[in-house]
Amino acid sequence: MMESSAGNKNTYESVLQEKLFIKPLIIVVIDTEEEFDWLKDFSREKTGVSHLRFVERIQSIFSNYNITPVYVINYPVASQREGFEPLLEIFSQDRCIIGAHMHPWVNPPFEEEVCARNSFAGNLPYSLESKKLEILSECIERNFGMRPVIYKAGRYGVGPDTFDILAKQGFKFDISCCPHTDYSKEGGPDFTDKTAAPNWSDADRKIFEIPLTVGFEGLIRTVGPRLYPKLKRGLLEKLHLPGIFSRLRLLNRVTLSPEVSNLAEMIRVVRDLYSDGVRIFSLAFHSTSIEPGHTPYVRTPRDLADFLSRLRQFFDFFFSEFDGQPSTPDQVREAYLLTGSPRDIQETL
User: Fold this and answer.
1) What is the pLDDT along the chain (349 residues), one digit of tens a residue?
2) Which residue, among 211, 161, 158, has the nearest Cα to 188 in the 3D structure?
3) CATH classification of the domain holding 151
C-alpha cells in the first residue's frame, strides 16, 4: 500500500509539472565555497577563495545563454573581499542571484567538534545551526545589500530542524535535496525516496524545495528508484554491481553536473526524465572547479578545458535541440503558486 501511495504521488507530481510547463526549464546553481583538499579531514584553517578571480570563466558562458545563475556562497566567500567582490560586480549588474551555502566547520560560531558528522549542519543542535545560518546571512547582507532567501546546505546536510530554521529566518527556497542518494553512512541525510520534482517542504508552504536533478538512465531505468538502493548495500556494493550495471547500460544513476557526469549521460537523463513528465531541471557544480587543482574533477588545465566545453555543449543541447529555457527559483515557484486551471509558465516569465 505504501509503494502504491508513493507511486501515485510521483505520478501526480509529474502530471502537474507536464501541465504547468510546456517548455523544459533549468536553473543553474554554483556551490561557491573555499578551497580545501577533499581527501583530507575537515579543517577550520582552509579558507582560501582566490579561485574566484576566475569567475568570469563560467559567468561569460552563462551570459551567452541568458542564464541567471544562483551562486550559493558560504562564509569564507561572503566574508573575504577576495571572495565576494568578484561576485558583487556580477550581482550589481543583475547577472546572478546570491544565496547562502553553509560549511559549518568554517562558519562561526565555532562551538562544535570538527568531524565528519558535524560537517552536516543538520546534525548540529538547533541553536547552533540557527546561529551559524544567521551569521552567514548577516555577512551576505552586509556585503551584498540583500538578505539571502535561497539556501543550500553544504554536503546536502539538511536535518530535522533545518526547514523550521529557514522559515524563521525568512528563507523561501531550499535547494539541498539530492534525490536517490543516501549519505547516512557518513552521518548525513537519506534522499533515497526523493525525486527530481520540486515541491513544498512543509504543509504551510513556507519553503519551496527545488532538488538537484538526479535520475536514472539505462535499459531498466524504470525500476531504478527501487533497485538502485539495493545495489548500494552490503555485498552487492562490494561486488561493484552499481558499476557493472552502469557499464552494461542497464542502470545508471546520473547527476546533472558537468563535474561527475559526461555529456552523453546528462543528455540521456534529461531526455528520459522529460519523457516521464519532468519539466524542471537543476544543474550544479562547485566554484572551485573553475581553477585546476581544487577539486577531484578539475586537476589540470586540460580538465578545465573539458569541463567548460562540457558545460557549453550541454547548454547547446538544452536550449537549442531540446528547446529549453533558463529560469530562476522565483520563476519556478511562481508557476506553482498559480491557482485554477494549469497555465503555461511562459505567461509568468
Assistant:
1) 334 444 454 554 555 555 455 689 999 999 999 999 999 999 999 999 999 999 999 999 999 999 999 999 999 999 999 999 999 999 999 999 999 999 999 999 999 999 999 999 999 999 999 999 999 999 999 999 999 999 999 999 999 999 999 999 999 999 999 999 999 999 999 999 999 989 998 878 899 999 999 999 988 999 999 999 889 888 778 778 888 888 888 999 999 999 999 999 999 999 999 998 899 999 999 999 999 999 999 999 999 999 999 999 999 999 999 999 999 999 998 867 763 323 333 333 4
2) 158
3) 3.20.20.370
- Total count of domains within the chain: 1
Q: Is residue 249 part of a domain?
A: no
Q: Which residue has the cell 548525513?
A: 188
For residues 328 and 331, what is the distance between their CA atoms, to the nearest angstrom? 5
- Is 298 inside a domain boundary? yes
Domain that holds residue 138: 23-213+256-338
The answer to the question of residue 343 being in a domain is no
> Is residue 7 domain-resident?
no
